[in-house]
Automatic annotation (TrEMBL):
Gene Ontology molecular-function annotations: muramoyltetrapeptide carboxypeptidase activity
Organism: Erwinia aeris
Lineage: Bacteria, Pseudomonadati, Pseudomonadota, Gammaproteobacteria, Enterobacterales
Ranges of residues in domain LD-carboxypeptidase N-terminal: 10-126
UniProt keyword annotations, A-Z: Carboxypeptidase, Hydrolase, Protease, Serine protease
UniProt cross-references to InterPro entries, sorted A to Z: Carboxypeptidase_A_C_sf, Class_I_gatase-like, LdcA_N, Peptidase_S66_N, Peptidase_S66C, S66_fam
Protein name stated in the entry: Muramoyltetrapeptide carboxypeptidase
């Protein structure tokens, strides 16, 4: 697809980017496509395992005066949780409502996205610089869905899934399951009523995923949702000990426990192919036969340059 040149502003609120070559490759690719990339010093910045000190990484999140089209996280890892007490989500959310920025990332960045969502700010859960734009071979699927989400006031995702009767609408939210669960009992977990919760994770065995979903259920989060959509759960190997216990077993239990539809199979998360989701957008979720369709609308999109 033809893409208008944009300005990407990099932030690194989490872990140090070990794959420096991938990040630099991503920057070169973006520049070769006519885009501008700013705040490049975040790529090499390091303090212990983090992409800079807490103060430096917190400064990355002060985007009130940043003039760019897209804010892109360098990578995930760990570290954003440390920043939450000093993060002025309300101020940034107010700026986003006044002058939208397409802030995109996933994984550890989910906690920042949830704090913003609770304050009324929308972001995009999608690709990051090193892992996606800097992949050895970039996924056309990922790029197409990224630009579609950022430029289309309404768009529809379609994917194969297990047959069930689903026709619901609500606020689309979620992201990395471990990070969502880590916010229980904190001031930064949004209270979404009638939502469509989309989840993904990496290196989490089915029993850990089940345990986290049970925690969300026991905290009352799932009772307020209309549906759960499961994305990619990668990096896991089952063993003989599991004896048939797998992710399908988890989804079956959660359906039985909550009465919610659990719509599986969305390519979303820690995977070469990933869609981009506007968190806080309105979603219409339907399953007809073995095909799921999620139509998203009501999110801010990139403005056309004059």
């Amino acid at each position: 697809m033809s893409v208008t040149p944009r300005t990407f502003h990099l932030i690194a609120p989490s872990g140090y980017c070990q794959n420096q070559a991938a990040a630099q490759l991503a920057v070169r690719r973006l520049q070769e496509q006519g885009h501008q990339v700013t705040n490049l010093q975040t790529i090499a910045r390091r303090s212990q395992r983090f992409a800079g000190s807490d103060e430096q990484r917190l400064q990355d999140l002060d985007l009130r005066q940043v003039e760019a089209d897209i804010v892109l996280t360098v990578r995930g890892g760990y570290g954003a949780t440390r920043l939450l007490p000093g993060f002025d989500a309300a101020a940034l959310a107010a700026r986003l409502r006044e002058r939208p920025l397409a802030i995109c990332g996933h994984s550890d960045f989910t906690v920042i996205q949830m704090a913003l969502l609770k304050a009324g700010g929308q972001t995009f859960s999608g690709p990051m610089l090193a892992g996606n734009f800097g992949a050895e071979v970039v996924s056309d699927f990922t790029l197409d869905h990224f630009w579609r989400a950022l430029t289309s006031p309404e768009f529809t995702l379609e994917w194969p899934t297990a047959p069930q009767d689903v026709d619901v609408s609500g606020t689309v939210w979620g992201g990395n399951l471990a990070m969502l669960t880590s916010l229980i009992g904190t001031p930064w977990l949004p209270e979404i009523d009638g939502g469509i919760l989309v989840i993904e994770d990496i290196n989490e065995h089915p029993f850990r995923v089940e345990r986290m979903l049970l925690q969300l259920a026991q905290h009352g989060v799932l009772a307020r949702q209309k549906a759960i959509v499961t994305g990619s759960f990668t990096g896991v190997k089952l063993s003989e000990y599991d004896n048939g216990y797998d992710f399908d077993s988890v989804w079956t239990l959660i359906r039985e426990l909550t009465g919610l539809p659990v719509v599986t199979g969305l390519e979303f998360g820690h995977h070469w192919n990933t869609v981009t989701l506007p968190l806080g957008a309105h979603g219409q979720l339907r399953v007809a036969g073995d095909v799921a369709r999620l139509t998203l609308s009501g999110h801010a999109v990139l403005r056309e340059h004059s």
